[in-house]
Amino acid sequence: MASHEFTSVRSPRIKGVRRLAKRTFRQRERRFLAEGPQAVREALAAANGGGRPPYGGGGNGVLEVYATAEAMQRHIDLMDAAHTAGVPTHRVSLDVMSELAQTITPQGVIAVCEFVDVPLEKVTDVRLAVVLSHVRDPGNAGTVLRTADAAGADVVVFTDASVDPYNGKCVRASAGSLFHLPVVVGVPVARAIDFLNEAGAKVWAADGGGDKDLHQVADDGDLDGPVGWVFGNEAWGLPEETVRLTDGAVSVPIYGGAESLNLATAAAVCLYTTARQQRRP
Questions:
Q1: What span, in angstroms and rounded, lies between the C-alpha atoms of 78 and 92?
Q2: CB-based contact 208:164 (threshold 8 Å)
Q3: What is the Cβ-side half-sphere exposure of residue 5, based on CA atoms within 13 angstroms?
Q4: How far apart are CA 97 and CA 257, in angstroms?
Q5: Can you give the pLDDT at residue 54?
Q6: CA distance 85 to 166
Q7: Which end of the chain is more exposed for a tag (fewer CB within 10 A), N or C?
Q8: Residue 6: exposed, middle, or buried by beta-carbon count in 10 A (0-12, 13-18, 19+)?
C-alpha cells in the first residue's frame, strides 16, 4: 500500500503521466494509460504472466498504478496483484485522479503500461486474423478488438491509417482485450494482406456492398481454413484498391429494413460465423 499521496496536479510526476493522453508522448515513451479497474486488472494479470501475447513484444507490462484511497480499499485485489507483480502503487487525491483520467466520472484507478504491440513478422500460426483499415473511431476499434478476442482471433492489425490502439477510448472499449492477444500497429494494409496470404489464409473484405453473401461463403467452405478479415472505415468502408487485394468483398445479409450494420456489429457477425465454421466437427 502506498504511503505517500500525490495531491498537486502541478507535480512533475503527475504531469508526466497526464501527457500520455497525447499520442505524440505515448509514441515517444512507448507508454500508455489503462484506466478503470477492468483494464488495470487485465494489465496486471498480463504482467503476472497470464494471457500476455506469446511473441515477446510489449516490454514488461505495467510500470506503476495510481489510485485514490477509496479505490484502493474497494479494489484490494488490484493492489495485491500490483504487489505480486512488483508494480509500484501511488495514492492520489480526487483532484489528481480527475486530472489523470480521461473519463467524466473516473473510477479511481489508472495504470501506466508499456506498449504491447508486436512486429507483424513475429506472428505465427494464424487461423483467424483481423485487419483494421482506415478505422478512425477509437470506440469502434476497441470494440472490434474485444470481439476479436472473444471469437478467438490470433492477431489484430491496426494499419498505418487507423486509430492508435493506445488511445484512451480505444483501450477502455477493448475491456482488457488489448492485453489478451497479439496486436500489430502501423503497417500498410497491403503488407498485412500479403502477410496473411503467405501464411495460407484466405482474406475477405467486409463490405456492405460486397457481391458475396457471408452465409454463402460459409456454406461453400471458404471460412473453414485460416481466414483474415479486413474491416474498413465506419463511414465509407474500404477503397476498391484494397478490396482488389483480397479474395473478395463479403456482405452480411440484412433480412429486415435496416439500411446497414455498424462496423462493430458487422465485425462480430463475420468473426463469429468464421469461428463457428472453423470449429465444426
A1: 16
A2: no
A3: 12
A4: 45
A5: 46
A6: 22
A7: C
A8: buried
Give the DSSP letter string of 70-137: HHHHHTHHHHHHHHHTT--EEEE-HHHHHHH--SSS--SEEEEEE-----GGG--S-SEEEEE-S---
Grid coordinates given for 39: 483494464
**152 vs 166: CA distance, rounded Å:** 21
Q: pLDDT (tens digit, 9 = 90+) per residue, 193-222?
A: 999 999 999 999 999 888 999 999 999 999
Contacts of residue 272, Cβ cutoff 8 Å, sequence gap at least 6: 151
Residue-wise pLDDT tens digits, 47-75: 877 655 544 444 458 999 999 999 999 99
> How remote is the C-alpha of 280 from its chain's centroid?
27
The secondary element (H helix, E strand) that includes residue 229 is: strand 227-231
User: How far is 81 from 91, CA to CA, in rounded Å?
Assistant: 16
Q: Which of 102, 71, 63 is nearest to 5 (CA)?
A: 71
> pTM of this prediction?
0.92
